[in-house]
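Give me structure tokens for this 101-residue protein.
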Amino acid sequence: MKDLPSIVTGKTIKIVGSVIRYQTPPTRNGNRVVYVIMEDGTGIADVTVFSDVQEKCGQVLFREGWLVVRGKVQRRGQKAVSIIAADLSPLNIRGMVSGSC
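Here you go.
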């Protein structure tokens, strides 16, 4: 996660980390957006999970302490970097992905 600031906007990446917290603020259009704050020991990442991924990966999203996230890098300003999730997977004890949703 320490390398996120140097990654090109729009690039698809995979990150692995522990979930610190979830945020589900209200939206104007009523669609639920979940923000997941994750860390991996080198830094923190903000992951945005829109409703389509929530529907597909809901069984993983709120039940796992460690996640593998595949998504695209998005920037909101000079230093604000987030990942727009396309897929979420649990991380099993041996450090292997146990299957995506």
